[in-house]
């Protein structure tokens, strides 16, 4: 496994790209998933989409296990949300592509999705709690959407400017 560089703001060109479905699960997809997982653990983070390492394919990794617990990686390809609850929940979200920035985001509290699992089989999931939020955050990435798109325009513009300025100053 190898660590991959994570794309961050202000590189919106990459982060705004819409990722393409994978044709199936082959050794290349598995290798990418493994590298993404390693990269995510190292960051550390709880979710990562392939576009965050510059690959525009509809692939995610998630692991919500806590430090010191047995790792529980979830590998997801071509996810499609088929249902979302009317009930909403708020979580303070962050993103490895927007380091050190956190904001409350409101999303459906539960979702159902269809996806391809690591074995290349069609699978379904009913996600609640943090998993539901994390899945929606990562699926957003596949559509070029960032969590800051769910907050006020003023806050969004402020954080984007902050990263543009940091880049100009050579701090990124
Ligand atoms: Ni993210």
Structure description:
This protein has helices at residues 12-15, 27-42, 129-142, 153-168, and strands at 47-49, 59-62, 74-84, 88-95, 98-108, 110-116, 122-128. The protein is an alpha+beta fold and 172 residues long. Strand 4 (88-95) and strand 5 (98-108) form a beta hairpin. The longest helix has 16 residues, at 27-42. The model has no long low-confidence stretch (mean pLDDT 96). Nickel (II) ion binds next to helix 3.
H/E topology pattern: HHEEEEEEEHH
**Basic shape:** globular
- Please identify the top-level CATH class: Alpha Beta
Count of individual domains: 1
- Given as residue ranges, the uncertain stretches (5+ residues, pLDDT < 50) are none
Cofactors and ligands present? nickel (II) ion
Radius of gyration: 16 Å
Q: What is the mean pLDDT?
A: 96
CATH architecture: Alpha-Beta Complex
Q: Span between N and C termini?
A: 25 Å
Widest sheet: strand ordering: 1-2-3-6-7
The CATH topology comes to Peptide Deformylase
Count all strands and give the number. Answer: 7
CATH homology superfamily name: Peptide deformylase
Structural class: alpha+beta
